[in-house]
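Quick one: structure tokens for this chain, please?
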Amino acid sequence: MIPVDKPNTISNDKLSAITGLTYRRHKQLADAGFVPKPDRGRWPTLETLRGLFDYYRRDYESKRGLHVEKLRSEKLRADLLELELEEEQNRLIPMDFAIDCLADLIIGITQKIKGSSLSELEKAEILKDVRSLNVRAIVKKRGKNFRRPDAEDT
């Protein structure tokens, strides 16, 4: 006897032909609550297909999120390796060294201004601006290291 489709249900064979999944996999998804359970080997068509689409959408979004995180992690790793290579090639200047150099430069500029022939009022205005420089904040914006100006770009 040929099985007759009940309205709004689909047989195991037709469902497997549509989804490419085995009866066992459909049953696992039903047991996990993603699709309704079959009744005597027949699946509620609309609810089953909707459940399968929802399952695969969530599965895709989950894998996509993992993929994005993996790409972010790989980029971070590559950036760190690039910094390590630049450090090994002596193409970076450590931040503390840069701060010390800039501080020495500011001291030199301050001394030049104080010894200049400018009026005391002009000196005071310029020195006020020089003192307002926050060397550490300026350098920290750049990160841990500066690229050496004489380092060749490769």
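The chain has a mean pLDDT of 83.
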